[in-house]
Specification:
Layout lengths: L8 H4 L1 H23 L6 E7 L21 H13 L4 E6 L8 H10 L3 E6 L6 H10 L3 E6 L12 H14 L3 E9 L7 H11 L3 E7 L11 H13 L2 H6 L1 H7 L14 E4 L4 E5 L2 E8 L5 H8 L1 E3 L8 H7 L10 E3 L15 H4 L8
Parallel strand pairs: 1-2, 1-7, 2-3, 3-4, 4-5, 5-6, 10-11
Antiparallel strand pairs: 7-8, 8-9
The structure holds iron/sulfur cluster (SF4) (2 copies).
One iron/sulfur cluster binds next to strand 8.
Amino acid sequence: MAFHMPVSAHRSSLPYRLQAGVRKAREVGVVGHALASTHHPVMAQIVPMRRCNLSCAYCNEYDEVSKPVALDEMLRRIDHLGRLGTSIITISGGEPLLHPELDEIIRRIRKTGAIAGMITNGYLLVPERIKRLNAAGLDHMQISIDNVQPDEISKKSLKVLDKKLQNLSEFADFHVNINSVVGGGIKNPQDALTIGHRALELGFTSTIGIIHDGSGQLKPLVDEERRVYYEMSKLEKKNYSRFNHFQEAIANGRPNDWRCRAGSRYLYICEHGLVHYCSQQRGWPGTPLAEYTQTDLDREFLTEKSCAPNCTVSCVHQISYIDHWRAPQTRMADVAPLAHHLPHSADSGDRNSELVNIEF
Ligand code: SF4
Ligand code: SF4
């Protein structure tokens, strides 16, 4: 499959590079603050829209019917995350671009001083929509692309999305990361390499995630998948691969020894405004965000999660890495085994390598 259009003039222009420099300086500030203090969330993921315009077979994070969360409620949640000192707020879903007041949500995130990110399937990215995201102040976008040609598992395909990627290359002022995947359900492992090369060609960064099928247990990749995984890892910028060493263990079916800081350094806020450890452990602690306080953050920082050894939730690994050298956990949360309480699979491609994109 041949693709055209290399890095756009826009992405190599001086104004774009100046803006990217300012963004980088803000990110360095986030890292410094995170290293200096353990008492605030580094990242929160919020869901303003559970509905999605796609229905990927492996996904347990969407429905086909729910309405957008009201804007004033979303603004209240963002303000509370601001009061807790949250450094990065990432909008997720479902499909966030279906929310009619998404731009106001992004503006409010920036008003708190946080870095504003978004995870989208990219289907709705026309030039006019991209320019509105620029104006709202979006800092980062991640699009997860599963295959080159659409199939019954996923329509998040390079063939369908390449025009959207070209639009982004030409008009987006924000950073764009393209995540590709290997593992359960993806027919052709080579697709990840095609997607990764195309992302770099257009001036984006590129990462790879591993997905697993419905058992929720670690499964080693087959030989061809592992070969593609290692080749893709070489394409990733050094700062990503430094944090993805945990994926090495996953690729080989080995559990990881790490301290999950979910509920403290990372928060997942569902559409009902409840705080959960992550998208795969909804219900723990399940506290309304408006009632979530410093006491909760400090307790969860020191709480060991029983699901940690087999966890594939990449963004929480990356965030938790900041504190890996300090504060052993002294309390145990005996949460459900992964995937046993959710309807579909153990992990979803969009979320498998969630947006962090900060150079530590
Ligand atoms: S993986 Fe993303 S695009 Fe696919 S159904 Fe889930 S939320 Fe929608
Ligand atoms: S699934 Fe992973 S990120 Fe979520 S609570 Fe368990 S260990 Fe933490």
